[in-house]
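Z., the sequence and structure:
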Amino acid sequence: MTSKQKAECHAIIHAASAAAGGVGAGLAQIPCSDNVVITPIQITMVISLGKVFGIELLESGAESLLATGLAGTVGRGISQVLVGWIPGVGNAVNASTAAAITESIGWAIAKRFDKETA
């Protein structure tokens, strides 16, 4: 990965993670409601990362790549049920979990794209 590609990936991934964290914080008291908003954020992130590496993806292709992050989504769902309903604590846990999962998925996909185009 070139330094330019890394900088572009950094901007894309961190913007998506921040957006996912914000959504996660705002919708913490309604279990799994944030998935409706976070999934399109992650799809856009994957498509944008593909463009960094010259890979054109349709939404369906991005959705397929996101399926690898399903375990994280399940884990986030469990954390929402356990503490999501507690005001303040639930918001913080949900926000940090949504941001961390989005960040992890983003870098894993960026590394995959880098290997595919190398």
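DSSP finds five helices and no strands in the chain. Helices lie at 3-26, 35-52, 59-66, 70-83, 89-117.

Let me know what you think.
H.
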